[in-house]
Amino acid sequence: MTVRQFTVIIEPDEDAFHAYAPALPGCHTFGATVEEAQSNIAEAIALHIECMEDEELIPIEREPLFITRLSVPVAA
Asked: Which residue in 10, 18, 44, 69 is a FRET match for 28, CA 20 to 30 A apart?
């Protein structure tokens, strides 16, 4: 078994948390807590990859990854 790492985004969404893997389009899930969302997205990633027909199509994320927040002026 190979272990791969994927970037996962977990963000608040209404009364729950939305989790997704940007490298795997369509791989999304939710959880009532951050921990549940993290567990659910790990399972969703494993299932998503299992359904891929060609292992060579599994994306390999390159380093470095940089995520930041920007302040952008917006006209009112």
From this structure: 69
